[in-house]
Amino acid sequence: SDHMExxxxxxxxxxxxxxxxxxxxxxxxxxxxxxxxxxxxxxRHLKPRGTLQLAGAVISPSDEDSHTFTVNAASGExxxxxxxxxxxxxxxxxxxxxxxQHHTEAIGKNNPPLKSRSFSLASQGSANSPGVQxxxxxxxxxxxxxxxxxxxxxxxxxxxxxxxLVDVREMMxxxxxxxxxxxxxxxxxxxxxxxxxxxxxxxxxxATSMATMNCLNDCFHILQLQHASQQKGSLPAGTTIxxxxxxxxxxxxxxxxxxxxxxxxxNKPASVREEQSIAESCQLTREPEEINPDEExxxxxxDKEDDLGAVxxxxxxxxxxxxxxxxxxxxTRVVLxxxxxxxxxxxxxxxxxxxHPDLFIVITNGTTPEERMIRFVEYYLTSFHEGRKGAIxxxxxxxxxxxxxxxxxxxxxxxxxxxxxxxxxxxxxxxxLTPSKDMEGQTEPDYYTVKFVAEQVSHHxxxxxxxxxxxxxxxxxxxxxxxxxxxxxxxIGVTMIGxxxxxxxxxxxxxxxxxxxxxxxxxxxxxxxxxxxxxxxNCAKTxxxxxxxxxxxxxxxxxxxxxxGEVKQNVTNTVVCRVQGEWNSVLEFTYSNGETKYVDLTKxxxxxxxxxxxxxxxxxxxxxxxxxxxxxxxxGDIDKATEHKRALEERQRNEERLRAETETPWCTKYFxxxxxxxxxxxxxxxxxxxxxxxxxxxN
Length: 699
Description:
Layout: E1 7-14, E2 21-29, E3 34-38, E4 50-53, E5 58-61, E6 68-72, E7 78-82, H1 86-110, H2 162-187, H3 200-231, H4 270-283, E8 297-298, H5 309-313, H6 315-322, E9 341-345, H7 346-352, H8 357-361, H9 369-387, E10 395-397, E11 404-412, H10 413-422, E12 447-458, E13 463-470, E14 475-487, E15 492-504, E16 509-513, E17 517-521, E18 528-539, E19 544-551, E20 562-569, E21 574-582, E22 586-591, E23 596-600, E24 610-611, H11 622-625, H12 627-635, H13 638-662, E25 671-674, E26 677-680, H14 684-698
Parallel strand pairs: 9-10
Antiparallel strand pairs: 1-2, 1-7, 2-3, 3-4, 5-6, 6-7, 8-24, 11-12, 12-13, 13-14, 14-15, 15-16, 15-17, 16-18, 17-18, 18-19, 19-20, 20-21, 21-22, 22-23, 25-26
Helix pairs in contact: 2-3, 3-6, 4-13, 12-13
Domain PH: 4-101
Region (Disordered): 104-136, 420-440, 638-658
Family: Belongs to the OSBP family.
């Protein structure tokens, strides 16, 4: 191929903190699949200073600038390189990726079969891949040489009839069995010696075989959908199609030598059968439920995610996963291993952003629009630290469509009105609002209550809606977030697409805001979380706005978790407050009057949320829905957690396919679609407006 020529030239290579970047002469040897470098061009005839095998490597352009990229070899060695400009970087990256793909595909053809099995791996490449040509007899069914049910070579494949789908499914089941045997054979190999279970070629073989089976599952799913659409008019009422088992996931291949079975329904634990059966009861009613805060108890759960043991034990599984991913790949539909999960749903994580409700409810105490905007910025920046559970980057559960989470917070009025106000010394004293009575004839409580509800309103794309309100303070916040994740090489980026609106009904003000991007860095070593991107907060009525920048760490030097921002009056373009610091440590606020305030987020008091006991929760509430996964993770039983997680995901897929088959739209419970967003069905601004209208009519 014209794109497989050897290329060479100077690139900057990052060595270490002392010597930094140095120019080196690099040579891409396409025939050998090697990237070599020399001190300079004149020493090219000498032995290379360094060499990387490109088979199985990941080539990653940096997301921080347009010149830098990394070459991550399958051996774990990494080159950090920098071209002179974006065009030169693209030239090197594209040639390296082509060479890497070519030699990675060659592994499948050249790797000898295992003695205990008679497998031969067909070429993994497409017909357009460099150096790879497809034989006429090569097709999806002949991926494994199983020796039976072969399609005759050269014959035209007839249109699929229902009985043919049954035959295909049988062949697929046999291929899946062969693939599982292959995985077991590899994992039963010793961990040391000439041929080990961690051999890089065998890891690549596991990855490619799994990717191929997933692709065949997708193709078969398409055939089933086509057949269902053709037969829709003739199917009896209530008839459903028996769908193929879900994709093979990495979680099914955790421990070397462990036989992973797909047990029949009768052999499943009672808890798994419960997870699969609660769908019917949940679908009986989608009417909103009024949660009584008096039924909620102070949360005693404290699952900090600082344990790295499971991640370290499963390093080969992470390598296995990375070998299947491509740069920029959307991870929404990728089944991730269970051991990287933290013990809470994404919906509960949104609730944990409200762990400083005292700072939230004093926003409306501000006596001027400027003061209220500054108070909101202060609250906003203090919310992210407690939203993370520990220093290790783990992933919350992906919420099931229709999943909900409810909680509340209570704060003594005496403490909020005094301590929360004194917590903001740069501002003038606040006017205390008169809270409304709960019910006529009853004594009003001596505490404020903030209620929270979240719901997963969509599965594809994954969209969550959440809403919080404090009736006594006449304020509420409504938001919807679409989490979109991408593979970035040695990190994973999550974009939080959506918008939130804070409503201060006492002042008739609305504050729109967005959320920063999140990154899981160093996923092969000790994963950690970083926030990045620019966030804007605006109040159209008052003309005040805030611009906040979450800075990602530069490639060389610089501080972690840095954040800067400013609050300004748009009409006069006057900056009234500046902020700098770290979003998980200390923040410094400088006000227009010259005063400065420091907030140590690690020392801020946290108000524990109140949650109903599991026995009082509905079957689709987060903690009850995921309780068996959470308990297994606490016990350290990854296999059991994986089984429960798989049962929930399988049920969700089956329900989604049934809705598609019957053309039944999903009905949300608490949130309504309005334009491009989602709004709580009974927001406080509607309730207050209705009460005011009623009082006006009475008067």
